[in-house]
Amino acid sequence: MRKKNIISSLAFILIGIWYSYLTYWLPTRTIPNTPGPSFFPWVIVICFLTLSILLLCKNFFDKSKKTDKSSISYSTLKKVFVSRIFGLKSFEDIVELAKDFFEKKVFTLLLMMLTYIALLPFTGFLLTTPFFFAGFMFLTSEKRFLYIIVFSISIPFSIFYLFQNVFSIFLPNWSF
Amino acid sequence: MNPDVYEGFIKSAQLLSLFATCVGSFLGLIVGMIPGMTISAGIIIVLPLTFVMPPSISISLMLGLYAGGMMGGSFSAILLKIPGTPSASATALDGYPMARSGKADVALSTAIIASFIGGLFSFICLYFIAPELAEVALSFRAPDLFSLIFFGLSAICSFATKSIIKGLLSGMIGLLFISIGQDPIMGTERFTFGNADLLSGLHFLTALIGLFAIPQLADNLSDSVKNINHETNNSNLRHLLPSLKNLKIMRLPICIGSFLGTFIGILPGAGGPIAAFISYDYTKKINKNPKKFGEGCIEGIAAPESANNAVCGGALIPMMTLGIPGDPVTAILIGALLVHGLAPGPLLFMENASFAYSVIFSFFWANLFNLLIAMSTLPLLVKLLKTPKSLLLPIIAVLCVIGSYALRNSFFDVYIMFSFGLLGLFMRWLDMPVVPLLLALVLGKQLEEHLRIALTSSQGDVSIFFTSPISIFFLCLSAISILWPIFFRRKEKQSI
User: Fold this and answer.
1) Looking at chain B from residue 241 to 300, which residues have their Cβ under 8 Å from any Cβ of chain A?
2) Residues in CB range of B389: below 8 A, 6 or more apart
3) Are B252 and B283 in contact (CB under 8 A)?
């Protein structure tokens, strides 16, 4: 968790700095003695950066108590510094963190969903959804192909009919 | 009789509204019962349907789902020892041992009756307190409203169970997002990058769908891969009417649970699980034979069940009168009402009083339908526990996409929903609570608006927040709300 916290707090600090840069370019105030459009974003960014730094400090100094200061050489100092800054000791750590974040099946689902929503405006609901539905069913370890085919066609068509004709919500149709 | 009350009752008792409440209750019982499905997810699923319905019908559907979900959560807690909702966790302590000893019907009937009475009690409180509170809230000025919303946001600390810093950071992320679009006072473009879709800001319902549904899909997908099978103790579900003796036993626990549940529901951020555990604990303490708790006693089911259903009515009080959500579900309800152009708050009782009363009465119908549906169809409902996830999960995914698209007929919202889904996964990976972000998304815009109006009227003088007694009252409550979890955690650490 410490590694995660250090990486994320660094990411938050970067986001905070970027957000401050954007806030800096916002118009300040138009009526004297009144808060302008940039007032609230400044309040947020100050709190956000303070909290991010607090999170970083809390995790950064957490482990420092355990190190042996007497045997610090330049290379160990460098190692410790890198590990403190990024919370990582080796490439394996990065792989481990990535694995931790994305389970294989979850990653596949996200990829499938991304493809589905990217294609949806062009191919329409009826053409794309059955494929997405079938893929998702397969992903949930459903192995009965007939079952997958029947439901991946019937359910999207029923949903389309229900929304279009009963609820009058027009879902995107193919637009080649 | 007040004509608005009468009109509200008639609206809620229309055939279509009653049908919607009935469907909502049925869906709620199912959603609450299925482990891994939350009430928020259930409401998100039906959300796209509500866009085309009149507001009174759509709110009836969602209230049915809300109350039904709370009751349904106890069924799986009793039969599987897996609480369908977090609020039903305390019910499992005595419900499951009772079901294992062959008294599943007694446990379930106790849960159903206690839930109904808890809901009924909170409906009475909602009916009497809400209009009075709304009238008081009408006199609030900008500094008071700022302090009130700040108090609503201070509930963030209650949700930050593991780390206060992470909870507050989560809230700040939400505030970063609400600053996108036109600013609420001058209409100046902020952080839009020239994108016309961002001018009106990010719709918080889109964000909500992504934040709640996608991480939940991911969780359920992992579970389905691990092939988690549940065995139910539903051998005897025919005698669901409680005996007179059992009704007598559950009298006091229900009173305790109903009262505590309603009170805790009014407090922003406290929620069902806390109410259920406090009621359980208190009932155990005052019981003559506390040793029987945990081994399957009626009191141990009645107290938490009445409490978690009473929370629903309690949470509706600040939502309806002050526009402050008490939990994620009421936050979604606020969003759903906003879609219909109805802003919950004191003005709702002024401008749309009959609608406000129809919401209150719909909550009553929801509780009544829960009782009737649960009593009559429980064996069927229990069978639905076996619904294959291979069908359920793709349907949820497709409905999430439709829900975010149908909000404004825009694919941009679908992409935003997906991005928030990724953010939700990231936050879960980081052990960062999502609810503070949600609270900030719901309340952030109003917070900024009232802060700036107050400061403009005082020419930038901050002391305006410390001159009004109402503002001081809410600021003090906020301070307690922020400091209490810190103090409580420190005390807990010391005791360890």
Assistant:
1) none
2) A140, B36, B220, B223, B224
3) yes
- Structure-block tokens of residue B40: 């928020």
Give B466-475 pLDDT, tens digit per residue: 888 888 988 9
Q: How far apart are CA B427 and CA B3, in angstroms?
A: 48
The confidence band for B227, taking pLDDT boundaries of 50, 70 and 90, is: very low
Whose structure tokens read 């869906």? B27
Q: For helices B204-225 and B411-429, what crossing angle results, to 10°?
A: 60
Q: pLDDT tens for residues B159-187?
A: 666 778 888 899 899 999 999 988 888 88
Q: Are B450 and B146 in contact (CB under 8 A)?
A: yes
d(CA B355, CA B421): 33
**Angle at alpha carbon of residue A86, lines to A82 and A91, rounded to 5°:** 80
ipTM rounded to 2 decimals: 0.80
Q: What does the pLDDT read at residue B19?
A: 93
Q: CA–CA separation, A143 vs B208, rounded Å?
A: 32
Q: Give B 388-447 residues with CB within 8 A of chain A.
A: 388-391, 393-395, 397-399, 401-402, 405-406, 409, 411, 414-415, 418, 421-422, 425-426, 429-431
Q: How many C-alpha atoms does B321 have within 13 Å on its Cβ side?
A: 26
Average pLDDT over residues B28-54: 79
Dist CA B284 CA B316 (whole Å)? 28
- Residue B252 CA to residue B18 CA, distance in Å, equals 32
The whole-chain average pLDDT of chain B stands at: 82
- Element spanning A98, H or E: helix A91-101
Q: What residues contact B220, with CB distance under 8 A and at least 6 apart?
A: B36, B37, B389, B392, B393
Q: How many angstroms separate the CA atoms of B93 and B273, rounded?
A: 13
Smallest Cβ distance to B188: which of A27, A55, A136? Answer: A27
Contact A137 B390 (CB under 8 A): yes
Quick one: average pLDDT of A25-32?
74
Q: For residues B470 and B148, what is the distance between their CA atoms, to the nearest angstrom?
A: 9
Closest CA to B223 of A17, A99, A139, A146: A139
Task: Please check whether residue A149 touches B, CB under 8 A.
Answer: no
Let me know: does B46 contact B403? Beta carbons within 8 Å.
Answer: no
Query: pLDDT-based confidence at B270, cuts 50/70/90?
Result: low
Tokens standing for residue B427: 């936050």
What residues of chain A lie within 8 A of the CB of B459, using their CB? 33-34
Of B168, B172, B429, the CB nearest to A101: B429
Number of Cβ within a 10 Å radius of residue A142 = 20
Q: Could you tell me which of B362, B404, B448 has the C-alpha nearest to residue B66?
A: B362
- Tell me the C-alpha distance between A132 and A116, whole Å: 6
Contacts of A168 in chain B (CB under 8 A): 52
Whole-angstrom Cα distance, residue B159 to residue B270? Answer: 8
8 Å CB contact of A35 and B455: yes
> Is the CB of A34 less than 8 angstroms away from the CB of B405?
no
φ, ψ (nearest 5 deg) of residue B195: -90, 120
